[in-house]
Amino acid sequence: xxxxxxxxxxxxxQKIPTARQFLGLPMLYFGLGLFLAPLALTLLKYLLRxxxxxxxxxxxxxxxxxxxxxxxxAYQSPVIAWWHWLFIAFGANLFLGALARxxxxxxxxxxxxxxxxxxxxxxxAGGIAASVQMSKQPATAPHDARxxxxxxxxxxxxxPVYGAPIRSQSTNVFAILALxxxxxxxxxxxxxxxxxxxxxxxxxxxxxxxxxxxLVLGYFFVAFWLVLVISIASGNA
Length: 237
Prior knowledge:
- The protein has helices spanning 25-46, 53-76, 82-103, 106-136, 173-183, 188-203, 208-236; strands spanning 147-148, 151-154, 160-162, 166-167.
- By secondary structure, the chain is mostly helical.
């Protein structure tokens, strides 16, 4: 008796993204990669003492290899992962910043500053878009989570023997966003952290610790900036 088989899908056919996917998380990761590049350049300059033309030229080469290598991996992969967006943007902007320091061209410094601003705004806009998109999607209840049956052995003719199905758990996306923006000192860490805790309570997903860490960092930075503003205002009075 012939058995029905699932239609074969090539990796390339799975790589076509929808328009909605490009409005949220990819924008966040790409903008975050652009935003982290100047921080890396600052660390290279003051911690590793990279402040010569030859040193910045080496950084240019390594950044170009990073962006090109990750881009090639993303092109060959069936699905574009989050770290593809992050490291492509990071490598490209790192190359631009190092090139500006190598040539000392004022125009490149202006372009680099504009790209950094665009990266920050893109990360914020992407985080907001992701939160809006995911808030519109119905939360998956714990009993609806995907069941996975592990292979515990094989029969004499080579057929797999499956054990008792276990429930797979995914990490809540908002918990990851809360931790990321917590390190960036953004108010979005507080928003994403509370959304994550609310969804985790309903869905049973993992990531509660990430959400709490993001909340702690978010509230800490908000308190820090409030104290700083009050201190500056008191000193000018």
